[in-house]
Design goal:
Elements: E1 2-3, H1 7-18, H2 25-35, E2 42-46, E3 54-59, E4 74-79, H3 85-89, E5 101-105, H4 110-120, E6 123-134, H5 160-166, E7 170-173, H6 179-185, H7 192-204, E8 207-211, E9 217-223, E10 229-234, H8 243-257, E11 263-266, H9 271-279, E12 283-296
Parallel strand pairs: 4-5
Antiparallel strand pairs: 1-2, 2-3, 3-4, 5-12, 6-11, 6-12, 7-8, 8-9, 9-10
Helix pairs in contact: 1-2, 6-7
Length: 300
Amino acid sequence: MLVLHGSQNLQILYESLEKNIPESLKVYGAIYNIKNKNPFNMEVLVDAWPDYQMVITRPQKEEMKDDLDHYTNTYHIFTKAPDKLEEVLVCPQVINWEQVFQIQGCQGFLDEAIRKISASKSVQVDYLKTALFRLETPRKHKTSSDEKMELTELFKMHKVDEDKKKGNSLSIFLDPSHAGFVNEQWEFGKNERSLKYIERCLQNFPGFGVLGPEGQPISWLVMEQSCELRMGYTVPKYRGQGNMWQMGYHLEKYLFQKKTPIYLHVADNKEKVQDIAKGFGFMASPCGWHQWKCTPKKYC
């Protein structure tokens, strides 16, 4: 595998991957962020250039210092050549099988190759498949003179005190100070490494939230290094009050303005959440969302 350098090459690859959405979404979204300041210090690997068959995004080596930090140690994979998967994935120069890591992708057939190599290397695999939802075009919104404002103004907390007195909710951009709230409720989190990961996401990517009457987040969505909207949650007391809709209205406009890929995954048994996503215009993709957490036996 070759490390792909140069903004022009990355743009060519990005436009090419667009033709393979939704299967390429995880890689496509990661490259979007790599092209835009690359805050997670990731790199792109291809098997050949320009006639590639496989693309992997991963953190640069200096980022993967903690062998137990599978939040940072995440690989995104897209391939047009399933028969070459084992040959590529088994290579230690491509994946560090000595540490705990994740592989994420939107191609279910990756599973066979990942499990086969993991078994040969005494690595435990925890596999998760969920529904993948993506948004292609924005819903039409009512227009007003306020539409001419910078969208970031919509999220400023300039009227928090007034709104708190009235008991109203307020849409905001989250910042690292809100990471604790997110970490406490994220089913994949609730630990120190996930807290640091969420703080880093909120430093570098959009985190959307709604403040309740007490001035604390009651509903939120946080974007991660592949542009996926993850860590979504609404405090039970405030569910069914339209907070996710309020947040989604601003979120949608903001991300479309920046031409950011918009997608998320939802567990198959969370039908209400899936209905909300569909109500916003998200379309379910048959390929699904897939994650493999790989843990060497020495860390089990």
